[in-house]
Write a structure and sequence with these properties.
Length: about 260
Amino acid sequence: MVEIKTDTALEAMREAGRVVAHALAAARAAAAVGVRLSALDEAARAVLTEAGARSPFLGYQPSFAPVPFPAVICASVNDAVSHGIPDGYRLRDGDLVSVDCGAELDGWTGDAAISFTVGTPRPADLELIAATQRALDAGIAAATTGRRIGDISHAIGTVARKAGCGMPADFGGHGIGRRMHEDPHVPNRGRPGRGFPLRHGLTLAIEPMLMAGGHDDYRTDPDGWTLRTTDGSRAAHIEHTIAVTRDGPRVLTLP
Ligand code: MG
Ligand code: MG
């Protein structure tokens, strides 16, 4: 079931989204060559605690996962696409890192992700991150009243294909509100004019995951969580929570 949010709920989700943005900024600021991924998690956790927010990631266990998620961020490095666990891995020069974070504040949730490089970047990684950002921007721009979920999916898929990138077919965006994952699903490719109609008060997490190798297949690590490219190519993942409004799409996960 899709819950259309009241304007009061949208303001509450904006506050949760602000906490997510600050937690992501803290994780990114903590990232440097030689730093453990767990330190990024600690930096984000401190922001959530300070804000009085709960993590919807910590302890999360969807049907595909063998164990509850042990952290407040996902940290996915290089050929890891998404859902990486922030463990004791020490960041190396030139790593491409995607950090995903959520926050629940006063009963409402925000969810966002960023991709960035550590140390001296590879030019190809910067291009991949830029393409992923363009895909997200195109998806958000398509999130206007009177259109449909398929218009968002089509916009994202068009950018990814043009960039020569693959995308894991089984993972995409989602409705969000009282819980992190709500209906409707927001696929990262699709046909325009199809799917759930977009109207004022619909809140969505839009999240393209682009794989540089151009293949759509992926594999899951033995940890049961980390998604990886099968060809070893690098991946980027960028996400915002947005609201469809009569004044156009409103990004809720900004600082
Ligand atoms: Mg996310
Ligand atoms: Mg999400």
